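REQUEST ID: PR-0412
SUBMITTED BY: lab tech R.K.
PRIORITY: routine
TASK: structure prediction, single protein chain
INPUT:
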Amino acid sequence: MAKTFYFEELTNVGINPYEAVIASSREARRLNQDRLMSDTAEGPDKMTTVALDRVVQGKLDIGYGPGSSDEQADKNEGSAGR
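STATUS: complete
OUTPUT:
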């Protein structure tokens, strides 16, 4: 059975819900890509559920500073268009 996440879980931890959505979507994308690259079957939980759980438990760093995944993504987008 899938876990239901409530808005209060994010605000009690002190996470902006909009940033939590962005962080969990990036984490779910990363987890799914890793799963596809290793050619393993899907588990009982969806990747989005696992990613949201990691955000709520504080296992993911949410940031936009130097060395963050946003900065790396911006660099990759800039070089891809040239």
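NOTES: The two ends are 46 Å apart (CA to CA).
REVIEWED BY: pending
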